[in-house]
Write a structure and sequence with these properties.
This protein has about 450 residues and is an alpha+beta fold. It has 15 helices and 23 strands. The strands form six sheets. The chain has a seven-stranded antiparallel β-sheet, sandwiched between helices. A five-stranded antiparallel β-sheet has the order 8-9-13-11-12. Strands 1-4-7-5 form a four-stranded mixed β-sheet, covered by helices on one side. Strand 8 and strand 9 form a beta hairpin. Helix 12 packs parallel to helix 13. It is globular. Bound molecules: flavin-adenine dinucleotide. Flavin-adenine dinucleotide binds next to strand 5, helix 3, strand 13 and helix 10. Its cofactor is FAD. InterPro entries: FAD-bd_oxidored_4_C, FAD-bd_PCMH, FAD-bd_PCMH-like_sf, FAD-bd_PCMH_sub2, FAD-linked_Oxase-like_C, FAD-linked_OxidoTrans_Type4, Oxid_FAD_bind_N, Vanillyl_alc_oxidase_C-sub2. Keywords: FAD, Flavoprotein, Oxidoreductase.
Amino acid sequence: MDFTELKDIEQKVEEREDFSGEKVRPLAVFFPKDEDEVVRIVRFAKKNRLPIIPWGQGTSLTGAVSCDKNCILVDLSKMNKILEINDIDWYVRVQPGIKLIDLFEELEKKGFMLPPDPASFFLCSVGGAVAESSGGMKGVRHGSFREWVLSLRVVLPNGEVIKVGEPLRKNRAGYDLVHLFVGSEGTLGIVTEIWLRIIPIPKRKMVMIAAMLKDFESAGEVIVGLRKNKILPELSEYVDADVVKALNKHLSANLKETEGGMLLISIEEDSVDDVLKVLEGKAVDIKIAEGEEAEKLYSLRSQAAIAVKAESNKVFYAEDIVVPVSKLPEAIRRLREIGEKYNTKFYVISHIGDGNLHPNIIIEDKVARENAFEEIARMAIELGGSVSGEHGIGVQKAKLMAEQIVKHNGVSVLDLMYQIKKLIDPDDIMNPDKYVELAYKFLTSRG
Ligand SMILES: Cc1cc2nc3c(=O)[nH]c(=O)nc-3n(C[C@H](O)[C@H](O)[C@H](O)COP(=O)(O)OP(=O)(O)OC[C@H]3O[C@@H](n4cnc5c(N)ncnc54)[C@H](O)[C@@H]3O)c2cc1C
């Protein structure tokens, strides 16, 4: 492919790998410095019918940035500025390539926070988190990115630039296109500017309760107990016994090892006693941490996937199922049964407070790994849950997403989603053959 027309835009020929280990082999990687350059790249791709893959930081766990040869990557990392922090209207306006950790630090200096904190916050870009509608450790109280995006500028697949939404807390003007693009996984356009809602850092003192549980089942029972008692933590996260061991081994975490792994609950100081009551009989050891110690636990939790990756010698599939919280005990029991069937451990990491479980499957044999993966996802569908809470669909979960939508919503809903993709991207150049499009193909090939 002759890229002379784009020669003044920074570019490289290189192979990459996403976090799931998927190889990415584009014809070229472009590093636009501004929106105009993004527009030129997109127009060029449209003219040449060349697939474009937007790239944030490549921490996708679902193959969402995969591409093999006949495609170009648009790496947004050079568009990484904070354009405005509005301390009265309470929003921040950023370019997509800024790393989430850098944004968090700047907001903190001004006394603000953006609550959704994917455990990859120290790696991922804001654009990637918006395109995936990432959730995070504080999701139980604050939701995922979907709830924090106010407005977006997007370069559409035909090169036209649109701004959807307004930096307003309330806005009822027209269909909600902002939330069509949030979570669209780069399949509808390239996001070039983002307005996000921010809130002041709360003044009430928070503490972190680290409960080393007596068994895995207790984790689900505690969460149901918190709900029954109308307790809403800021964070309720879980890592199972094998993840605790992996954290000790690879990150010198020095955590107590028990049968049931570790449940972390961050909550206002005056609610600690209520939580301790719910934990009665479920925990072998409880620590109440503040300040630096609490931050260390938070940081260890955010690095749990890194420890699992080190343990697994890179062969792992990260599940991302969600079940209704009331079904957590059943999901945990069935997960244990599936583990026994495949004679494997699942290295469960979980935003357990909102029913979101990440069993990590490290079975060497690919067929068995895929079978276990699908069985777990189908269990979630059966329990009225979802195949993905936050990691998205990419390539990996397209078939399962089709099954979920057909079962819970009906064929016509997936068909409508596919019509939207075709309407916005008729030439099928924007991150093609993934997500909705791939799910639709699975559905139609099944007949
Ligand atoms: C250690 C680890 C922990 C994780 N923990 C969590 C977690 O707790 N919660 C969670 O939700 N996820 C988690 N993830 C998954 C992942 O980090 C998120 O999906 C992340 O937000 C993606 O950001 P990225 O910048 O790496 O995007 P990429 O992986 O580069 O891209 C992700 C998708 O977004 C698209 N995209 C990127 N930028 C743009 C743009 N500007 N415009 C349009 N499309 C774009 C890409 O095409 C792709 O489809 C974790 C991943 C790792 C490795």
